[in-house]
Structures are given as structure tokens and as C-alpha cells.
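User: Hi! I'm working on a homework problem where we have to compare a predicted structure to a textbook description. Could you give me the structure for the chain below?
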Amino acid sequence: MTTAAVVAYYREESEARVSYAGHPPVLYQRTNDRVWSYARPPDRKGQSDGFPLNIPLAIDLDTFYSQITISMTPGDRLFAYTDGIIDAPNPGGESFGLARLKDALDANTGAPLSELKSAVLKILHEHTETELTHDDVTLIAMEIC
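Assistant: Happy to help. Predicted C-alpha cells:
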């Protein structure tokens, strides 16, 4: 199964547009916010005019992929990642999860992007207590200039 999150920033409109194909939500942080927020599509119960909505790629050719628009200003940030981060298990089998990811981001608000990414990976390694071999682990942090 292949999931995707597509994030595009339109400078002239000062907007980020996000679409999902079965992918976990991108997070964003406004310059003056002390916490990160989830960029979640509106709940439409998985259907759009009878067609599947936002499901993983290549499952149904008639899938509709909605788009979320987020107004952005200089200093605002976006964070995208693969499910290998939130699915990473600890020795007891408990997944890292969205809440721990958000807590890691919230704890490092204002850190330079390189430090933010390093802090997330450090907290992830502390959770798993081992090498990350269960799945791919990819993250991208962006700041609007």
C-alpha cells in the first residue's frame, strides 16, 4: 500500500495546499503559536459524491483527493513525515503515535529546523530503544520565508 501527502506552497497567495492519499496528517505551526496543529481534511466519512475519498494510491481509480488550504505568513512552519515515525514500536509494542510526535514538536517550538528534526529523531530513538528497522523513517520540516 502506498500513501502520500502532497504539500505545495503558493507564495503569491501566501497559502499552503495539502492533499492526502491515506497519509497521516501534516502538522503546521504559526509564528506566534506555541503549539503545532494538524492539517486535517474535513470529516466527510470517506466518501465524495459516492466516490472514495483520500484513500491510499492505486486502490480505487475513482478516488477523489480533497485539498486543504492553510494561510501562511513568514515564519510559519510545516512538518511532513512518513508513517514509519508514528508506527515505530517500543519494546512493548506500543507505537510512537501522533500525540508523541506533536508533543516532541511542541517541546521544540522556536528551535531552528535542523535542531527540531534532530530532537524528534532523538525522542523517537528513546521510545524505540533500538535501531529503526521496522519501516522507512522520513521527515521534512519547512519554514515560510
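For your comparison, note the following. Residues 86 and 98 are 6 Å apart (CA to CA). The mean pLDDT is 90. Good luck with the assignment!
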